[in-house]
Amino acid sequence: MNTPNRPAPPAGSEPAERIARRVLVVSADIGGGHDATGRALEERVHALWPGSRVGWVDTLEVMGPGVGRGFRRTYVTNVAMTPWLYEFFWASLWRHRWFATSSKWFTGAWAGRRLAPAIEAFDPDLIVSTYPLGSAGLAWLRRHRGLDVPMGAWVSDFAPHPFWVYPQLDLDVVVHPSALPVAAVAAPGAPLGVCAPPVLDRFHPGDQAEAARRCGLDPDRAPVVVACGSYGFGAVEEAIVALVGIGDAVQVVAVCGRNEGLADRLEAVHAPPGRLVVRRWVDDMPTLLRAARLLVTNAGGATALEAWATGTPVVMYRPIAAHGAANAALMTAAGLAETARDPAALVACVRTRLVGRPPARLVEVPPEPFLPYLGLPALADRRPPAEAEVPAGSRPGGRAPGGRPPSWPLRAQDAFFVHVQSPTVAQQIGTVLDLDPRPDGRPLTRADLTALLARRLPAIATLRRRLVSRGRWRRPGWVVDRQADAAAHVDEVRVGPDDDGGAAVDRFWSDPLALDRPPWRMLLVSGLPDGRTRVAVKLHHCLGDGLSAIGVLQRLMDPGDRTPSRSAAPATAVPTVAPADDRAGAAVGAGRAPTPGGVQRGRPGERARELARQARLTARGLARLATQGPAPRSPLNRPLSSPRRRLFTASLPAAEVLRAARACGAHTSELMVALTAGALNRVHPAPAPPRLRAMFAVSTSPRRRAPTYGNWTGAVSLDLPLERAAARDRVTAVRGSLRAALASGEVEAAGLVMRAMGALPAPLHAAAARRVYTSRHLNVIVSYMPAPFRTHRLAGAPVRTATPVVALADGVPVGIGVLRCGPTFEIGVLLDESLADSGPALVAALRADLAELLADVDAATGRDAVSRSGNDGGEPAVGGDELGADVAASAGPAPPGVRRCA
């Protein structure tokens, strides 16, 4: 019996820096093998790239309601009742190339279109497929939509067949060198590799006697495990009756999986005591296989690979049709299994191997044929092959119908910000970071930043997205460049002794991003006192909202200083995708993924009631939008005649903000909006209207939010009171207004309107977007980031402060972003050049209003009473939701006070 060893990867098999990645596992709940392979890949991802985020998507679930149940029922029926039909289909794939091609195209188009939203929502840097229809969908997406992140397929059967292997993918991985010729015939030109069996690390050789003791088996008998997958297919009862008849030297362990009927029938079998042990679902299969002297199975899938990894000899008994017979034949030819066709042959095989003989000695296979870490580094580092190496029609950069290169279409919400950009209104968001010197005492340099980006960009697909045209009538598209020039995205300005760098940052935010390359840029301001530096980071709004930008920025930070991924990466509900520990969309673990719109999978009646509730909420929101009317007229709003911007910043102590919020019974977001309203009242030019309309970004479920790409937040229109009033009264008014907006369905309705606008031809979509996103409908933009961020390091330099920067709109010259950074709330105020004189007064008014509110609170209740009336310092939720933001930032302590880009 041969078993693959698990040596340490050879030198050079790992990247120089173990950069965390976002990896999407495309699997399916049909049998247990596809998910088992996915779990093994997930385990290696975390071992190879600590801190990575792994999402799961169930291909059959996303293909439509009832598809998974229908496919599982068809599969069980074919294997158990009509094996000739299953064999006919399988054989036809091999015999008729046209049949295989057309079948793969049909299922690929079906699965690919349904997988696209889940892939886009998770924003993976790497995609691994363990299910043939998922691989077909990925291949279709690459050919027709330009999906160009590295993608690979792992064949969880020993013998591949045409549905397993695709030339369009970057790597198709089989588990033994003998499977390579089969895979090459199945899909000529496919890039192939070999890895060790894709099973969890727990499947390894060990002490057989100790394992038998842990499993409660008879130490005086030779354990023979009969396991035929989660469905318990095939002639299981026939095999067990024959094995039980061998005598007391053998103890038969029947693993029935999810086949309760099989378990009930076997428990009724009359066998001498101790000869037959019936197990249903086994949680500790590694220990059971180590205890076994022999495994009897019938398909050659995941169970056979797990036995191979643990060094347990395998006998294939009456293999099931099609892929089972092919697996058995190839494993037998490779010397990794024996095949028995009838009870007598099975008994003879077991007697020869077990009775009166010691366990078979394990012979290790040399590591050279196997890709380390199951081939994950090979996939991550794979570059597009030379054009001559790729078969015609399979090339990722091949032409789509109409002669244009394939590209991934922008979502309507992302294309919106491409359409509303104008020569005087650049749609770019970002952060200004203030950094201390590196640990060695020297300031951060452009070379440090460039080196950091050169290491990280290959693992961050978001920063390699480039806009391309898809024709006059279609939304723009994305292509993902496999390589990016880090130096081309970093500028440096060295300032003199009396220059704080504010003018350089203003110029940076005044210049629009070039759209012929990935639309993001960084500016390093050096020469500041005490070795400090400033780094401004901006991204085009079409790349993402503030939460997305935060996620990207975190991935550029040094790994050792990142906040743990579960709390640091805000998340939102996405179709069948969730963090790795939720196992969303796959039948692994107890959790099930939320569906679009937050509708949970459950009984049909529950789903119908939830859909009806969502429909009623959206209808109320549409009515609210229809009756809102235009924004108030204000001298603040004027056409922006120049792209020039000025950025002003301020810090507010978090302890004071939280104390004031608790005293007012408000969320800190509501308090900060109220302070903004008070500050605008102080600086608003006369005549001031009684209220101003602010666009306020909202994320309804940030804890589950996965993407680092795309605009996923919604928005509500919020009327800010400008009349002179007590600070507490203003907080109360804002709190009521905001909570009413959240409960009105406006967020859901606005999302529906955005998607509906995206269904229009591109020129009409652009016209509608430019009409909506103007001073006709809003006066100011206010964004709040709820997630606090702790101290990070960027290329070794500690981050002191992080200030968010938001984008303006046509006729809207004021954008205010708020971010919690450790002990402070950082506020960035971006103004049109024409309002630059109001900047210092505006940020000073924010602090003055907070001081006024605290004085009012202390006078009314006393400082001690206020502290006892609150909670432990957390932020109260608003109606069960948390409020997102259209900003991007990181974290770090900063002294309180008003400052100018400091």
Count of discrete alpha- or pi-helical segments spanning 4 or more residues: 28
- In percent, how much strand structure appears in the residues? 15-25%
* Major β-sheet strand ordering: 26-24-27-30-31-23-32
Number of domains: 3
Computed over alpha carbons, the radius of gyration is 31 Å
Average pLDDT metric? 81
Q: Poorly predicted ranges (pLDDT <50, ≥5 residues)?
A: 1-16, 358-367, 385-403, 562-602, 869-902
Any idea what the shape is?
A: elongated
CATH topology heading of the largest domain: Chloramphenicol Acetyltransferase
Main sheet, how many strands, which sense, barrel?
Answer: 7 strands, mixed
Helix content: 25-40%
CATH superfamily of the largest domain: Nonribosomal peptide synthetase, condensation domain
Which CATH class of the largest domain applies here?
Answer: Alpha Beta
Domain O-acyltransferase WSD1-like N-terminal: 410-667
Subcellular location: Membrane
Domain Diacylglycerol glucosyltransferase N-terminal: 40-176
Domain Glycosyl transferase family 28 C-terminal: 224-339
